[in-house]
Amino acid sequence: MATPAHTHQPVKSDHELIEFLQWCLPKLQLCWPGFRKVRRTIRKRLTRRIRELGLADLADYRNTLAAEPVEWSFLDTVCRIPISRFYRDRSVYNMLAKQVLPDCAARARTRSDCKISILSAGCASGEEPYSVSLVWHLCVAQEYPDCTIDILAVDIDDVMISRAQAACYSPSALKDLPHEFLELGFEQKHGTHRLRDRFRKCVHFLNRDLRKCVPGGPFDLILCRNTAFTYFDEATQALVSSQLHAALRTGGYLITGAHEVFPGMDHNLLRAHPGSAVFRKTNGEMLARPSTSSGSTEWRS
């Protein structure tokens, strides 16, 4: 009797999965250590794909990858981990409000356009760039009425970008937001929360594979958190770090994930605070901060 499709287990053990990932990930410019904690998610996706193709197991799937190179593109999508939510790591956004964005605004005033350029690299469904927009508009902008921000948000996944452009979110994506941000930033509709237009206008989305090319800048602030320096292989991390450094203005800020190691620390980057994942690009010397206004962080509508 044939085994029912729903009970068929193409990935028979964790050991088999690990062996497969250690084989395939380097071919995608990805690294196995970044996938240790999310391998159950990958296992579910692989199981679903193998069943869709009518294959028996991972060995059959490896043969398919050898015979049909286009399947590697699908496997690449299987290995994307778009874990994101608004205000992820509150300490980072507090630092944006109190130090980073006021400093960027003060420096923008020394240029003719008074524009702060920001890159969100690996933006998923838009939670990160929209969080930055909320911080700017509700905490900083009133002190710098002559300054504007422009946020370029990039991701490799068109589905994620479409969701970001729709700007509609479930309560679970918003659970870390300060209450004032939720009240002032969103309108409720049909059980979801939609970001108000005034916070969306400064954010622009672009499909871009960071493994191939990082947008050129120059940027005053780059956020590259929990993407390149978690999932990319060593050589690709080095390439991305070099391109990010080149795209960052002197005096600008780079923010990585809290537990990530930025491989370009031989560049002129200093931690904004000991132990933080916020770095500042110098010209080899300590940079003096331009005079700023009060930098108040009280909530503003």
Give structural notes.
- It is a single chain.
- By secondary structure, the chain is of the alpha/beta class.
- It has 2 domains: 71 residues, no CATH class; 192 residues, Rossmann fold.
- The chain is 38% helix and 17% strand.
- It has 11 helices and 10 strands.
- The strands form 2 sheets. The protein has a 7-stranded mixed sheet. Strands 3-5-4 form a 3-stranded antiparallel sheet.
- Strand 4 and strand 5 form a beta hairpin.
- The termini are far apart.
Task: Give me the secondary-structure topology.
Elements: H1 14-24, H2 39-52, H3 58-67, H4 71-78, H5 90-108, E1 115-121, H6 127-140, E2 148-155, H7 158-166, E3 168-169, H8 179-185, E4 186-189, E5 192-195, H9 197-200, E6 203-207, E7 219-224, H10 228-231, H11 234-247, E8 248-256, E9 269-271, E10 278-281
Parallel strand pairs: 1-2, 1-7, 2-6, 7-8
Antiparallel strand pairs: 3-5, 4-5, 8-10, 9-10
Concise synopsis of the structure shown:
The chain has about 300 residues and is of the alpha/beta class.
CATH superfamily of the largest domain: Vaccinia Virus protein VP39
What portion of the residues fall into strands of 2 or more residues? 15-25%
Largest sheet entry? 7 strands, mixed
Structural class: alpha/beta
Measure the end-to-end span.
66 Å
Number of helices: 11
What is the CATH fold-level name of the largest domain? Rossmann fold
Give the helix level as a range of percent. 25-40%
Please report the first level of CATH classification, the CATH class of the largest domain.
Alpha Beta
Number of strands: 10
What's the shape? globular
Q: So, CATH architecture of the largest domain?
A: 3-Layer(aba) Sandwich
Overall mean pLDDT: 90
Kindly provide the radius of gyration, computed on alpha-carbon positions and rounded to a whole number of angstroms. Answer: 21 Å
Q: H/E order of the elements? A: HHHHHEHEHEHEEHEEHHEEE
How are the strands of the largest sheet arranged? 6-2-1-7-8-10-9
Report the uncertain regions.
Answer: 286-301
